[in-house]
Specification:
- The protein has 117 residues and is mainly beta.
- The chain has one domain.
- It is 12% helix and 52% strand.
- Strands 1, 2, 3, 4, 5, 6, 7, 8, 9, 10, 11 and 12 form a twelve-stranded parallel sheet that branches.
- The longest helix is centred in the C-terminal third of the chain and has 10 residues.
- It is globular.
């Protein structure tokens, strides 16, 4: 869990579930991600299951993606299953795909591009 008041700048990789109550400025890869109300992620997100109550800005790759009421999501989302609750805010492009995780950029090539910039 990334607690309220905590800010992480950089990539976050974990084989298990992550709950973000604070802020992550960078790539997040895990099995399941929950962005809590008041939590925020800016960057590429890759997980089997993602539930957004807070804010996300960037590309999202998930088999199951739920955008809860009062969340704010901006960017491109690639999903197999998508739920948009009444009251959620989504600005961007949505693409349904049978294997959205396979579309995600390789983390090492993403880091190489960031280093070159």
């Amino acid at each position: 869990m990334i607690s309220r008041g905590v800010t992480i700048v950089g990539s976050l990789f974990y084989d298990g579930p992550i709950q973000v109550q604070g802020t992550v400025d960078g790539e997040v890869r895990c099995s399941a991600l929950q962005i809590a109300e008041g939590g925020a992620v800016e960057g590429v997100i890759v997980a089997e299951s993602i539930e957004v109550h807070g804010e996300a800005n960037g590309s999202i790759y998930a088999k199951n993606l739920v955008l809860r009421a009062a969340c704010a999501v901006e960017g491109e989302i690639y999903h197999h299953y998508l739920v948009l609750e009444d009251g959620c805010y989504f600005e961007g492009k949505s693409r349904r795909h049978t294997n959205p995780l396979g579309l995600a950029p390789d983390s090492s090539s993403h880091q190489d591009r960031a280093s070159a910039a």
